[in-house]
Amino acid sequence: MEAIAVLERYRVKEVVHIGSRAAAGPDLQELMARVARGDQRAFSYVYDVVAAPVLGVVRAVLRDHAQSEEVTQEVLVEVWRTAPRYREDRGTAMNWILTLAHRRAIDRVRSVEAASAREHKAALLAHTPAFDEVSEQVETRLEREQVRRCLRTLTEVQRQSVSLAYYRGLTYRQVAELLSLPLGTVKTRLRDGLIRLRDCLGVSA
Amino acid sequence: MTHGVDPHTLTGAYATDALGDEERRTFEEHLTRCPSCLLEVRELTATAARLGLAAAASPRRTMKDEVLRRVTTVRQEPPFTESAGQARALRHRARHASRWALAACAAAATALGGTTVWQHQRADEARERARQTQERSEDLAGLMAAPDARTRTAKLAGGASATIVVSDSRNQAAFLAAGMAKPPRGKVYQLWFQDQGSMRSAGLLDPESTTTATLMKGPVGKATGMGMTVEPAGGSPEPTSPPVALLALPT
Ligand SMILES: [Zn+2]
């Protein structure tokens, strides 16, 4: 007799698309190709699409407004400078730019001081992501609602791990220390938390 | 496993930039030879970017002029061009690394409850397997990196998960599975393309590994789905048992 368990029917992932979200927009891809050829006009359009998300990512990690603006400008100039090296087959331009923004914010944080000394433990744990409540952009508001809804589907430890790592820029070792959890647990919660978010948001590579 | 951390579990920490510099470099090295981690990293990095988008905050209006003024004085970097020497060095490094890749895959299979022949095999067999693995993973990496690669993931019985990756431009598909039960003794998992109700063989899964990334044999063509069945060792010309997995191809 076959020892193979019975087939569980293939489940369709929940996929929700909102408007013409920039994350996958072909426009930005096209614009980036022009920027890569030195087109400054195209860069000004890229700026319009990415400046707010870049500032958002940087500010979430750095908190300090003046520093955030400074790093945001550096990131945007770096986007211009390294555009010829962006490769479409590695992911969308928005993902590339936001990854760059996140790394630069984290470089700044980690170079200044140990993140655990930056803020009190209580403040780190209590604080939800620094969402910009007065943002006038409908797309951002919808995106935020969806991300919030999906974050609520995570377990407490998954949500804290993901938020502290992404929005606060902590290493997983610092997260483990902060939450008094074993390293392996935080590593796993970061992974399965993001996988749950991926499925909830309908993200594909 | 005798060596330190299982690299396959670091995808989430990597996607959120939560690794230290040293760990990040080690993991990036791992990514060059682990297609399933590469795929997962792509998806989880895209997921992290959505967290970023949700935090968007409008900068002050004057910033735009400042940035646009600055870039007029900044020279752009040249695009990457891979010289023949660099390409050779990369290939050499990849080949050198492939034994470790095989060991890592074997370790992962063990961790997931499967068994592996790694310890029992003679060294030359192991090297041959490593070489084949390397070639397969270069093809696989090419497929995963294709700009039009689409994926779909499904849960299988017993907590296993399967992901199908399809690229139209390459007319190729790959099947990634993690945590599957080993096939019964003397049996193998066989993959199929589903073409308008008929099943076309797409090769066998490595029977020694329950965590696998397999390039499906043959072109995708007009296939709309894929299936996996349990067949006698060596495979069958057509399915002889009901599918244990059946997935529509991602659209
Ligand atoms: Zn891996």
CATH superfamily of chain A: RNA polymerase sigma factor, region 2, helix turn helix motif
Bound small molecules, deduplicated: zinc ion
Instruction: Please give the count of helices of chain A.
Output: 10
| Protein structure class of chain B | alpha+beta
Main location (chain B): membrane
GO molecular function (chain B): sigma factor antagonist activity
Protein name (chain B): Regulator of SigK
Domain Putative zinc-finger (chain B): 12-37
Produce a short descriptive summary.
Chain A has 205 residues and is mainly alpha-helical. Chain A has helices at residues 26-36, 40-62, 65-82, 93-112, 115-118, 121-126, 138-151, 156-166, 172-179, 183-201. Chain A has a single domain (2-126, 133-201), classed as Orthogonal Bundle (Rna Polymerase Sigma Factor, Chain: A), CATH 1.10.1740.
Task: Describe this entry's structure for a reader.
The complex is a heterodimer of chains A (205) and B (251). With 205 residues, chain A is mainly alpha-helical. Chain A has one domain (2-126, 133-201): Rna Polymerase Sigma Factor, Chain: A, CATH 1.10.1740.10. In chain A, 65% of the residues lie in helices and 0% in strands. Chain A is built from 10 helices and no strands. The radius of gyration of chain A is 19 Å and the shape is globular. Residues 1-26 and 132-136 of chain A have low confidence and may be disordered. Chain B has 6 helices and 8 strands. Chain B has helices at residues 11-15, 21-31, 35-54, 62-71, 84-111, 123-145; strands at 150-155, 161-167, 172-178, 187-195, 198-204, 212-215, 225-232, 245-248. In chain B, the strands form 2 sheets. Chain B has a 4-stranded antiparallel β-sheet, covered by helices on one side. In chain B, strands 5-4-7-8 form a 4-stranded antiparallel β-sheet, with no helix packed on it. In chain B, helix 5 (84-111) crosses helix 6 (123-145). Chain B has 2 domains: 34-145; 150-248, no CATH class. Chain B is elongated and about 70 Å long. Chain B has 251 residues and is an alpha+beta fold. In chain B, a hairpin with a 2-residue loop joins strand 4 (187-195) and strand 5 (198-204). The relative contact order of chain B is 0.11. Helices cover 39% and strands 21% of the residues of chain B. The chains are: A mainly alpha (205), B alpha+beta (251). At the A-B interface, helix 2, helix 3, helix 4, helix 7 and helix 8 of A face helix 1, helix 3, helix 4, strand 1 and strand 8 of B. Bound molecules: zinc ion (ZN). Zinc ion binds next to helix 3 of chain B. Zinc ion binds at residues 7-8, 30, 34, 36-37 of chain B.
